[in-house]
Structures are given as C-alpha cells and as structure tokens.
Amino acid sequence: MKSIKRNILILVLALMTYVLASCGVNAEQVSNTSQDTSNTSDKNSGLIVYFLDVGQADCTLIQLPNGEEVLIDAGNYGDGSYIKNYLENLNVDDIEYLILTHPHEDHIGSAKEIINNFTVEKIYMPDVLASSNLYESTMLAIENKDIETIFAKPGLKIINSPDLKLELLSPKSMYYSELNEYSAVARLEYDNTSFLFTGDAESVSELEMLGGGFNLDSDVLKVGHHGGRTSSSIDFLKAVTPEYSIISCGEDNSYGHPHIETLNRLSDIGSEVYRTDELGTIVAVSDGQDIFITSDEIIEIPLSTPGNSDTQSVPGTEVKEPSAISETNYVGNNNSLVFHKPDCSSVADMKESNKIFFTIRQTAIDQGYTPCGRCNP
Ligand SMILES: [Zn+2]
Ligand SMILES: [Zn+2]
User: Fold this and answer.
1) Closest-lying ligand to the alpha carbon of 201?
2) Which of 90-104, 229-243, 310-324 has the lowest mean pLDDT?
3) Strands 94-99 and 220-222
4) What is the distance between the alpha carbons of residues 279 and 76, in angstroms, rounded to a whole number?
5) What percent of the chain has pLDDT over 70?
6) CA of 109 to the centre of ligand 2 (A)
7) How far is the CA of 150 from the centre of ligand 1 (A)?
8) Sign of the CA dihedral running 142, 146, 147, 153
9) What is the number of the ligand closest to the CA of 183?
10) In this structure, which ligand is nearest to the CA of 178?
11) Stretch 308-315: mean pLDDT, rounded?
12) Environment class of residue 121 by beta-carbon count within 10 Å: exposed (0-12), middle (13-18) or buried (19+)?
C-alpha cells in the first residue's frame, strides 16, 4: 500500500513525458528542463491538485512537491467517507494545511470527519460565525483536537519558499452582507505555474482583491461559487486570465450552476472549462513549467478499450495511452455506478460520456461502483 503514492507519481511523470512528447517537446528538452532547475529541492516531485467530485460542493486536495498536503474545503455533510477513502487511497494521513473557505454546509460539510480521521496540523478559516449545528460541531471537533486555527486575511503567506508559495488573498473586510464573500481565497504558485482557489467569493470580494495589488494571474482557476453568476466578474477574470477553469458543481443542481453568464464570460476570455458534474474528479498536474489536466486519478485516465480503437481524452488534452498503464481492466458506468470487464456486452452499449476507466478493482469499489452481475469483474 505504501508504494501507491509513488506509483501514481511515476505514472504522472510517465504521462507528463508522454504528453510533452506528443506535444512536440522531445525527451531531451524535458530532461534539460529538470537539469536546469535541479539546484532547488524536491523539484522533480511535481504538484498534483485533485478537484474531488463531491457534487454541489467543494473539496480540493493539493499534494505539494515538498510532500505536504493542503485540503481546501470538505464537501457536503455525508461526503466524509468518500473523501476519507480518496485520501487514504493516495496514502494521505497528515494534512498540513486545512483551509475552510467559509462556513457553508457545502464547504465544511465533512470537515469534522476529516479532522477526526486525519492529523490536521493547521486550519485557516475566516473570522466569521455561523449559526448552524454543523458549524458548532465542526468548531467543537477542532477544539477537541486542539488544532491551531488561524483567521484568513489578505497577504497571509502560508508557504513562502522560492519556488513554492501559498498565499491567502481574502477576506479583506470585517463585515459582508453575504457569507460567501467571507471566503478565504488562496493562490498557489509552483515555479512557473499558478492556481487560484476562490471558494464562494463573489463580486464584492473580487473587487477588493483587484484593488489589493495582488498578482491574480493564474493558470488554473477554481471558479468561484460553483460557477454562479454573482462570481467571476469580467474584470476579475481578465486579471486572472486562467488557461483552465474548474467548476465544482453537482449534476442537475437546483441552483442551475454553472450559470450561462459565467460560462459566457469564461468563454470570452478564452479559458478552457472543466466541470466535475461532467467529468467527475478532475486532476491538474504541474511539473513547475506546464500543467496537464485529466479526469480523476491518473490510474483512471481514459484509455482506449479493446474493440474501440479511438483513444478517448478529456477535451483539451492530448492524453493518449502511455504503455506503462496500457491495461484498462475495468470500465465503470458513472450513471449506474456499475463496473464491468472491458469485453462485457454492457460496455459496448454504454454511452461514451458515461464511461470511466479503472486499472485497479479496489479503486472502483472505493468510489462506490459495484461489480456487474453478468461479467463478474
Ligand atoms: Zn458553495
Ligand atoms: Zn457558500
């Protein structure tokens, strides 16, 4: 079990080399890049960001190149076992930094379970109270575990090393009329790549961040408030100019997230949009120079299946089948949550958009998939 994380990293690196090669960057250039920067520590470990598919909620796990973990938000109440299993599969037992952006249920929902099941070293949250039982019990869990809690404020540097920085950009004001505006927004910089995680911050906070003198420019944006129209104002998006935008929202959610106005604004600035309601968990991998987006864990990269010569890829990526993980052992249906052997007749009938691929049987089971009664995978 201990080697899972290392194996995933090897797969990531193999994949990145493969993708770079398929993008016209040759292996020599890749190795030159790492040689040029080999004077800094942990350079080759890479950064992996998982935007977990927790439905209409947020939960983002960041595995830093220095081996530390950051968790931003903890899904809805009831997502605890899913998040816990996901983290355990990645061999995470210690969360150095837990950022609870704001105390809405879809952000602190399963924080208590995370706090009780993992070693959480520091918690960052805005200085605002909420009047819910969930908030009370979360605060009690923090108190019981005696975890250092730090109030979020703009300019607070959580990590500040030469090629790795994690900084909070908000909330600036003491009072807002809307709880979402208290969201702790975090910007992560790894060498030449950057990510902005905005919680549910809306236009008031966005305006404050614009006026705060921060470098907002980021390669990846976790779009504010699940793609709601009151976030992602055009001026803010123009300052961030994300190449990739990730929207964490639930399929057919009652809010109508993401709103069409937001999608139009993201399209206007030329950002590629990836949605958890369409793709499930989305993974962004950075080697410090380039970012690769794929769906779910690396071990579940969409691969070609026997009898289907077309390699499927996440829109916008050129992910093809690296030889190291050429065996697709199981095909799941993300609608019925049943998984099959690739040659099961159900797979032939399955809609392409419903397919999810697993190489490891236990991963399918851990993610709530049950084996097909016909092909007995
Ligand atoms: Zn939310
Ligand atoms: Zn909220």
Assistant:
1) 2
2) 310-324
3) unpaired
4) 19
5) 79
6) 11
7) 21
8) positive
9) 2
10) 2
11) 34
12) middle
* For residue 86, pLDDT beyond 50: yes
Domain membership of residue 133 as a residue range: 37-294
**Ligand with the closest atom to the CA of 76:** 1
Amino acid at 348: A
- The residue-averaged pLDDT of 251-262 equals 96
Is residue 94 within 8 A of residue 115, CB to CB? The reply is no
CB 98 within 8 A of CB 68: no
C-alpha 7 to ligand 1 mean position (Å): 33
Residues with CB under 5 A from ligand 1 (ion): 106, 200
Distances (CA, A) of 215 to 189, 240, 241: 11, 8, 11
Asked if residue 46 is part of any domain, the answer here is: yes
In a domain, 223, yes or no: yes
Q: Which ligand is nearest to the CA of 228?
A: 1
Specify the CATH number for the domain of residue 123: 3.60.15.10
41: in domain: yes
In this predicted structure, what is the pLDDT of residue 194? 98
134-142 long-range contacts, CB within 8 A, separation 24+: 134/77, 134/105, 134/108, 134/109, 135/103, 135/108, 137/112, 138/100, 138/103, 138/108, 138/111, 138/112, 141/111, 141/112, 141/115, 141/116, 142/115
Q: How many domains, in total, are found in the chain?
A: 1
Closest ligand to C-alpha of residue 126 is 2
The Å distance, Cα 77 to ligand 2 centre, comes to 14
Q: Ligand 1 centroid vs 91 CA: distance in angstroms?
A: 27
